Amino acid sequence: MTTSARPEQVTPLTPDTLPAPVMAGRDFLSNLDMTPQELRAVMDTAHSMKRGEWRGVRPLSGLSLALVFEKASLRTRTTFDVGMYQLGGHAITLSSQEVGLGTRERVSDVARNLERWVDGVMGRVYLQGTLQELADHAGVPIINGLSDMLHPAQLLADYQTIEEEFGSDLRGKRVVYIGDGNNLANSHIHMSVLTGTDVTIVTPVGYEPNGAVALDAVRRGASVTLTNDLAAVEGADVLYTDVWISMGMEAEADIRRRAFRGYQVTPQMLETIAPDGIFLHCLPAHYGEETVPEATEHPKSRVFDEAENRLHAQKALLYHVMGLMKPRW
């Protein structure tokens, strides 16, 4: 299933027909900062944007977003920057050399400065606590572009891609994540709470996702399975993987490669998932480790659709967080 439409099918929106922003002025540090209804509104907007219905609409005209990076980025930087431009706003990129969160100056001071110049801040940082500190001291929305604990903006693009394949009702769909129980694994567990998917995290012993995240999700009624058994991949509707060695873990590279041996997604593994199942990877891919080029190029792969959807999903997020703001000048 696809939400794409031919140009002649598109009904352009106007400033008077835009949906109401559902997260106006709020922080987005976790997928659980949304309700299921708010997630639905953001997803509907992302699909609408991808269809071209927002072309020419500039709801964020006159607004600025600071992009604060402690970690390198291709997709996060490009999509947030282009997204602000397409919505009529402006993005300014600030590297760790320019800001130095917690080193060059206090995180709280950075927050108090930025709130006086810009209308929102996206942070791609090492620690979730850094984002929380920014949120505690800034009077403008803070958006999590990645932290050690969570990667919620990525999951919006992931689920847009999943909905393109299976429709908007994902209850009972099996999402199997294989590899390191990292920030993406934690965020997949959060999305199970919001969407009703059955999420299975398959990791080597000792590399499971955050236990508190999983326990909280189960208490909220989510279907979450943690296992070391590779057989759990069989029959998956969605098979997802990520790098074994995240930025900042390079010293553990050899240990991790040995631990994750056998957890590589190959074309042979893709033949064991559901006949209409799909393969996702947030990229960048470390070929020869968590996957191989033949998997990302496989007919079941939606990896590059997923990358494209970073733009649409994040534009939708920006609109729903910043859409009611007025320019300061």
What can you tell me about this protein's structure?
By secondary structure, this protein is of the alpha/beta class. It has two domains: 11-150 and 310-322, Rossmann fold; 152-307, Rossmann fold (3-Layer(aba) Sandwich). 37% of the residues lie in helices and 13% in strands. The protein has twelve helices and nine strands. It has helices at residues 36-51, 75-86, 96-99, 107-114, 128-137, 152-166, 183-195, 211-219, 253-259, 267-270, 293-296, 303-322, and strands at residues 64-69, 90-94, 120-124, 142-146, 174-178, 198-202, 223-227, 238-241, 278-281. The protein has a five-stranded parallel sheet, covered by helices on one side. The protein has a four-stranded parallel sheet with strand order 2-1-3-4, sandwiched between helices. Helix 5 links the parallel strand 3 (120-124) and strand 4 (142-146). The radius of gyration is 19 Å and the shape is globular. The chain starts with 35 loop residues before the first helix and ends in a 7-residue tail after the last helix. The model is unreliable at 1-7 (pLDDT under 50). InterPro entries: Asp/Orn_carbamoyltranf_P-bd, Asp/Orn_carbamoylTrfase, Asp/Orn_carbamoylTrfase_sf, Asp_carbamoyltransf_Asp/Orn-bd, Orn/put_carbamltrans, OTCase_ArgI. L-ornithine binds at residues 183, 242, 246-247.
**SS class:** alpha/beta
Looking at the structure, the CATH topology of the largest domain is Rossmann fold
Classified by CATH, the class of the largest domain is Alpha Beta
Order of helices and strands: HEHEHHEHEHEHEHEEHHEHH
> What is the topology, as strand order, of the major beta sheet?
7-6-5-8-9
The CATH architecture term of the largest domain is 3-Layer(aba) Sandwich
Average pLDDT confidence is: 95
Q: Would you report the number of β strands?
A: 9
The whole-angstrom Rg is 19 Å
The 3D shape can be described as globular
User: Which range does the strand content fall in?
Assistant: 5-15%
- Estimate percent helicity: 25-40%
DSSP summary: helix tally = 12
**Major sheet attributes:** 5 strands, parallel
What is the total number of structural domains? 2
Alpha-carbon distance between the termini? 44 Å
Low-confidence stretches: 1-7
CATH superfamily of the largest domain: Aspartate/ornithine carbamoyltransferase
